[in-house]
Amino acid sequence: MQPKILLVDDREDNLLSIEAILAPSGYQFVKALSGRHALKILLKEFDFAMILMDVKMPNLNGFETASLIYEREKLKHIPIIFITANNFGDENMYRGYQSGAIDYIFKPINPDVLRAKVNVLVELYKKNRLLIEQEQKLITINKNLEREINERVASEERVKDLNRQLLDNINNLEIANKDLERFAFMASHDLQEPLRKIRIFCDRLLLKYHDMAKEDSSTIARIQQSAERMQALINDILAFSKMSVEPSSFVSEDLTGIVSELVNDMADEVKEKRAKITISQLPELSVSPGLMRTLFQNLINNAMKYKREGIDPCITIRSDGNNGSGKFSRIFIEDNGMGFDQKYAEEIFGMFRRLHSKDKFAGTGIGLALCKKIVEQHNGYISAQSKPDEGTTIIISLPQQNFSITGEKTPVTSSFN
After folding, report:
1. Where a domain ends, among 190, 223, 240?
2. Which residues contact 85 (CB under 8 A, 6 or more apart)?
3. How far apart are CA 335 and CA 303, in angstroms?
4. Could you tell me if 76 and 203 lie in one domain?
5. Which site in 30, 65, 285, 373 is 20 to 30 Å from 226, CA atoms measured?
6. Do 7 and 31 form a contact (C-beta atoms < 8 A)?
7. Interstrand relation of 80-84 and 101-106 (parallel, antiparallel or unpaired)
């Protein structure tokens, strides 16, 4: 490709003169009759070996044009030689260098000097282009080599990592089982026994001094409430830590039946909360029925608990069959409650994580953590979508690999008030 040179002069004869001097060298020329014309050309083209520009031009002189050219990052690499008929003196010469010039050529132009200076800059341009091309080739080669090395190292390390992980998992499992056994014993004996005594003595005090001042009676009642809450917390922690599922405990169950039976058993709570629960046809999957009951009980209780002020809870439990991959069934528990900011969607499944004060809403902060553990025991996933004052949707994805078809079923929708 021929090196391009941009010629800028307001006189056509000057442009033709310069072109005639340099033409034998085989350069490609682009001509501009003003500084503005040159700027328009440089908006579309910037691959120039150099710019030869007259200093004295109307409207926009050479110094001003050079300053505007070098404001663009893509044009800063183009060297500029000013052509002038005047010897400006040191001050004006310095101004030219400040605006971006690298050299001057004085009129009348000496053809040999012009060709020599242009030839030096064009050779530098060619070498720079060659270096850039070689750099790109080296970058590509290095990337390919790096990828090949990484793939080889990764394949060798993968087996080592798997072996290390297996040994670590076995060791961690043994430690966790021992810790769990110790914790379960402590929770069921050492922690619960003092609480039972506190509650018994509070009951005795209330019976013995039932005519005491109202303020004293209220204090004892608060002690009882705190003890009851501590008892519930211990029970929840114990349930969480002891929860495990043997493969033999998985059976093919219609989740519609499990949830419908659960909601019937919760009839008093549903009536007290003035809740409406709608259950659509749910899939039949291989699950642990007891854990599924605990899972849905926690989620339904949450939906009724976190209702909006003055609005009765409305809960829908439905399924879309699968998530499009055919490997999982998705179940949605939707409510019209107070909701929460989506940024907390992952945090709510953590142990003891509460978005609201315990004084406003009772609970231990373990319920959703227990739900997550149950779903993970079934090799599934649980997530939440919510907006403040627009309700919450809990999404449960359970695998279908053990799905058992017992016959065609007609879709059923049940409602509970």
Report:
1. 240
2. 56, 106, 107
3. 6
4. no
5. 373
6. yes
7. parallel
Task: Choose the final residue of a domain: 179, 206, 240.
Answer: 240
Provide the 8-state DSSP code for 77: T
Map tokens 């779903």 to a residue: 375
| pLDDT tens for the chain, residues 1 to 417 | 688 999 999 999 999 999 999 988 889 999 999 999 999 999 888 789 889 999 888 889 888 888 898 888 888 888 888 888 766 555 666 666 666 667 888 888 889 888 888 888 888 888 888 888 888 888 888 888 888 888 888 888 888 888 888 888 888 877 776 666 566 556 655 666 676 777 777 777 767 666 665 556 667 666 766 666 666 556 655 655 555 555 547 788 889 999 999 999 888 888 888 999 999 999 888 888 888 888 999 899 888 888 888 888 999 999 886 554 568 889 999 999 888 888 888 888 875 555 555 555 555 567 788 888 889 888 898 998 888 888 899 999 998 865 433 333 334 455 666
Q: Are residues 278 and 220 in the same domain?
A: no
Closest CA to 71 of 42, 29, 28: 42
Task: Please report whether residue 117 resides in a domain.
Answer: no
Distance between alpha carbon 327 and the CA centroid of its chain, in Å?
Answer: 25
For position 342, which CATH number holds? 3.30.565.10
| Same domain, residue pair 226 and 255 | no
Which candidate, 43, 20, 16, places its Cα nearest to that of 31?
Answer: 16
Cα–Cα dist 126/189, whole Å: 86
C-alpha distances in Å from residue 308, one per residue of 118, 304, 336, 391: 80, 10, 8, 9
Domain count, the chain: 3
Retrieve residue 256's tokens.
């519609």
SS3 (DSSP) at 414: strand
Are residue 397 and residue 309 in the same domain, yes or no? Answer: yes
Residues 372, 295, single domain; the answer is yes
User: Two tokens at 248?
Assistant: 């033999």
Residue 218 CA to residue 92 CA, distance in Å, equals: 94
Q: List the domain range (segments joined by +) for residue 396.
A: 248-416
Spatial CB neighbours of 270, under 8 Å, sequence gap ≥ 6: 263, 277, 304, 416, 417
